[in-house]
Design a protein that fits this description.
446 residues; alpha/beta; TIM Barrel; eight-stranded parallel beta barrel; three-stranded mixed beta sheet; GH; glycosidase; Glycosyl hydrolase, family 1; Glyco_hydro_1
Length: 446
Amino acid sequence: MDFDVSIIKGGLSMQKFAKGFLVGAATAAHQVEGNNIHSDYWAQEQLPHSSFAEPSGIACDHYNRYEEDIRLLAEAGLNAYRFSIEWARIEPEEGKFDAGEMEHYRRVIACCKAHGVEPVVTLLHFTSPRWLIAKGGWEAESTISYFKRYVTYVMEQLGDALHYVCTINEANMGLQLAAISKRFRLMAEQAARNAAAAGKSAEGTVQVGMNFQKMMENMKYAAAENAGVFGDPQPKIFVSERTPEGDLLVMRAHTAAREAIRAICPHVKVGLTLSLHDLQAQSGGEPFAEAAWNEEFTHYLPYIQGDDFLGVQNYTRTLYGPTGQLPAPEGAELTQMDYEFYPQALEHVLRKVAKDFHGDLIVTENGIATADDTRRAAFIEQALAGVQRCVADGLPVKGYFHWSLMDNFEWQKGFAMNFGLIAVDRTTMARTPKPSLAVLGSYAGE
């Protein structure tokens, strides 16, 4: 059993994880650093008819305040920090690498280690260099070699200081968005007089902040504006509706990156992360749930079985009935993202994944968007109880990273979503740890 002595917390028995189990929080560069001016997202945020609720701007100014943020994480007891390196900073122009930006990330890693925090690095978390998208983006064969070149450069510079690297965040997101976007268009057609409500319903079924309604309204304008910026009216950014060929191209990019990492740093454990729902079939819904799981997970197995670990990212469940996907149950508690509050989903997904993937498992994202931090604390306690049951049953779960370390830029949703363990004042950038941060930290082994 990989946890030790019980302590009493909130009147309930709670067990710490064993020493060495990663208990941490996660961020993504674009969502927290600020001024990511060479990226595709930055460019799209500035368009006159952008689908973004607001631009990222200085985000949480984490680029300048990372030392304070890592210190707060460590002081609360957390022992690991998952963050991403921004490709658009490292290679702002094709073939031109910025040594100064590389030095910045070297300092972030050193800061983690100075505070006894294990750095877990993600090499691509949704955002890409603007120039890459102008050359065909995530549907272009050339992206595989460009990504491998970037990964090689980073690992040559930083690899000696790392033990865990995620190549690509939520490699399956493009197919999920394609399915959701298709469903949204059908819903909008069926409910033309109430399209806003239809959009809200669709957005709550994908684990990323999207404004499908605004995207539909702006489509004819955005096409021309995107063509002006990227040379393509429908640029193939990482978070775009993906073709089956593009889906496998992402897997091939991961495989190429994995080979590069192992050649340069054989000591580093490498994997990717997937966005996974707890797919639950009600009577008659079994074929739909099975097809969804194949699309979300199973068909990737040939590309990831050679990985050292899989990053499991889960926020909620999805229900299926005899006609397909169902809404959340009547009266269910919904988060700010319109996800059902269902922390039990994580345990279910870990157990299901472990049947087919035989490497280590790390929960690289799990969390809740809510302004009520007592619900976040409850979510953490229930989710981690499930993780501990998995560990007790012998599943190779090696860590848990909560999303997110701080309230941040939730992509197209802007700054309205409260996912953080730390509050950030949008005017002063002052940090205020929430009680949930200490709750999570209390689970880390001594």
